[in-house]
Each structure stands twice: as structure tokens, then as C-alpha cells.
Design a protein that fits this description.
This protein is an all-alpha fold and about 170 residues long. It contains 9 helices and no strands. The longest helix has 29 residues. The protein starts with a helix and ends with a helix.
Length: about 170
Amino acid sequence: METDKRAYRVLFFAWLGWFVNFADRQLLSPLLPLLQKDFTLSNTDIGLLTSAFFIGYSISPIPGGYLADKYGSKKVIALSILFFGVSTFFTGFVGGVVSLLFVRAFTGLFEGAYYSSAVGYVTSVFPRANRAFASALFSTGWTLGSFTGILFATAVGLLAWNFSDALIATF
């Protein structure tokens, strides 16, 4: 069975979402030295802050997959992108470390629901003979997204005077 153009469109947009998902999660790490300096944070504070994202992220993949099976992958994908986009947007307006902690936890929560929904959708539109290849292409979104996010945030961090400037430029 031949793979139709719709399957490749689904793959492209799912890949793009996965790319953005991983670029976003990498934005904060290169800026941590600025954050630590500007807010006089301890290493423990920085560890808690970086863990907040992954606490949210670890909670949502299973419910995301369940909801995708129950209500459809497209709905869960759309809501995941909408809400991780909104929470990422609000990262640029945080007033302090506590608000940043909550925003990053919510970002992780909504990003975590994406993968199970997107990979399920991609594999559902490809014929069995092409699913592994489609999944392989989809998975490159995380490596390229991670690389791009780290590269971008590092460049911004090198040019920024302080964390607030870097945060606004990055998010």
C-alpha cells in the first residue's frame, strides 16, 4: 500500500510540534548561570527549578495517551501545543523564581501529553510497511529541537546583560 500525501503532512506537523517541544525544554539550561547570579540562588534552588519542568512532564504522558485514545489524538495534540505555548509565553513575564517554577512545571505538564498522542497519530496514518520509517523521522524532532534550543539560548545568554533580558529575548 502506498503512503498518501496526508500521512506525510501529518508527519511533518507532528515532527514540527516535537521539534518545538524539545527546543522549548532546552531554553532554560544555558540561562541558569544568569538566573543564579541575578536571583542569588543556591545550587539546590537551581536543581529544584530545573526539576519542576520534569515533574510536570513525568505526570502527563500516560493521561495524554489515554485521552488521545478516548477523544482523539488531534484534540490532545492541539491542546498540548496550545497550553505549552501559552505557558512558554508566560515564562517571559515571570516576576521571580517561584512564578518561574510554576510556569515551567505547567509547561512540562502540557509538553508531556504531546508525545504519546503525536506518535500514535503518526503511526495510525502510515501503512504498516512504513511505520518504523515514519517513527524514525518523527524522532529526529527531539534531537534537532534540543540542539536548536540550546544553541539559541546560549547565544542569547552570551549577549544578555542579565537573566531578565535573556528571558524576554528567549521566550
